[in-house]
User: Fold this.
Amino acid sequence: MSEQEPVPPPEESGRESSAPPEPGPPARRGRGRPRATRRRDQILDAALAEFGESGFQGASLAAVARRVGLSQQGLLHHFPSKEALLIAVLARRDEVDVRELDGLGDTAALTGLAERNTRRPGVVRLHSLLTAEGLTGDHPASAYVRDRYARVRERLAHTLRTEHGDRLPSGATPDQAAALLTAAMDGLQLQWLYDPDSVDMPDLMGLLTDVLRGAAPDPTPP
Amino acid sequence: MSEQEPVPPPEESGRESSAPPEPGPPARRGRGRPRATRRRDQILDAALAEFGESGFQGASLAAVARRVGLSQQGLLHHFPSKEALLIAVLARRDEVDVRELDGLGDTAALTGLAERNTRRPGVVRLHSLLTAEGLTGDHPASAYVRDRYARVRERLAHTLRTEHGDRLPSGATPDQAAALLTAAMDGLQLQWLYDPDSVDMPDLMGLLTDVLRGAAPDPTPP
DNA sequence: TGTTTTGCCGAATGACCGGTAGGTAAATTC
DNA sequence: GAATTTACCTACCGGTCATTCGGCAAAACA
Assistant:
């Protein structure tokens, strides 16, 4: 008899923690999820957390398994390989991501996104880590990141174009502004992760959008 | 007799390739560098390139050694450990960095820095990779990155303050602008590394500085 | 010339890692 | 209640990695 130590619950889930249960495959049995899927979700939560802390390369399957109170091979029963596990994590992340992207209908929504990110450092870490790791040759996250950049910039540029036409009041084109806003978001996340107190992400994102839209400076003197 | 294959010369050195030889310890012998130091520099060049391609965690000592036509143990004769090697790379990088930081006397210099970075993707990759890796617990680059952020932001804020006082025409404070400029630089580098053609770093950094300084939009219509 | 130092390599070590094979017990299905 | 599927484990394997040890030849030095 080996006692297992299923380590405390994960800090944040891939599915938005407070999101209403999706109207997909109907919940079977008394318990919430369709039996088999629950463990999978637990594992994905653990993987998200572990990859977020150590990166994909840095994390070991054993470490992920330990988080759910499983042996490494028990974990491999649910996901055939480490890479498959990452893919699954990203796929689930993608659902949320698409929803968030759709939410960027106006530029102010970026500030809201920044604020929400403040409350889920694990996800932000995962994103930052994978974006960098994806640069190294044939990393499983490369395509994901590249694709994500394209979508985000495109979506943002589209929004800006509908709001301001082919040139913002500041003189920037929608494409330029999109690239800058995306870059600022990523860069601020890094600074914030290193020193949360010195960087106010929502505030700075709001400032940048205002400035790019050519808003007049705040009339109230300091 | 085992033929070695010392792989072609590195694309870029840690010391600025065209910088004048430093007036430090006098060059001994006919050849340029003081005998022993030359191999060390070769190794550091190789390590910079390798770490830039695979990251610190992802790179192996053997791979670095191969680049200089050395065995892994031969390399360890010059640097006692992998970590020591990274530290040495960063220390050498620091010299250049300080010089570049001093060059940021006016905001326009940022555009110049972006342009120079376009010509040394290896260094940019190293920087991006290590910044992310440094987030993972007790990484040898953590302190370096944290410290670097502090210095860069401080230096930038100082420059902005001398140029514009306590508030830029755009309404941003020097500290805010410094954080945003730093973030944009980092973020643009990532986007640029993923897709060099779609992102014009110098152009966008120039645009951002202009916008933050509250410059009027370019009067010439598209 | 003899001695020491330097530069380097071959071999070995121990840790860890991802992944495979085979088995077992419980749950599910019939 | 029998058959099958699912969930998971123990044991194992081949590979890579950083690091250590001991030795050897060339260079530097005396």
